[in-house]
Amino acid sequence: MKRKWGMTGATLLAAVIIGTGCGGDGAKESASSPAASPSSAEAGGAGKAITINAKNFAFDQPEIKVKQGEEVTIKLVNGQGNHALKIEGYDQEIKGNQTVTFKADKAGEFKFECSVMCGKGHADMTGKLIVE
Length: 132
Ligand SMILES: [Cu+2]
Description:
The chain is of the alpha+beta class and 132 residues long. It has two domains: 35 residues, no CATH class; 84 residues, Immunoglobulin-like (Sandwich), CATH 2.60.40. It is 25% helix and 35% strand. The strands form two sheets. It has a five-stranded mixed beta sheet with strand order 3-9-8-5-6, with no helix packed on it. It has a four-stranded mixed beta sheet with strand order 2-1-4-7, with no helix packed on it. About 14% of the residues have low confidence. The site of copper (II) ion has 7 residues, from loops.
């Protein structure tokens, strides 16, 4: 039994080494697949995906509108500088180049702001999440 497992492990290892040895094409494929995966798949198509771009010192979408009960996926892209997005009242913090999914179960207006001390324009980096 032990021998058999050992063989399997060696075979897998060899396959991995051969696989990575192939170079360029494989790396390209794996780099493009995460971006292509639809984030709304888990939510059964009912979700809303939003990408927010941050720069010094603003978010490109100062207002986000979603429907109450909707599954919301927010991705924060740091196009310039280092920023994070914190939504008050929803207890959500999205760090730079990360994605967060949550259910917008509370209606109302919720302020969001940059939660990284990014420089002199930091205080201007605010916006609103509107759940209606
Ligand atoms: Cu900031």
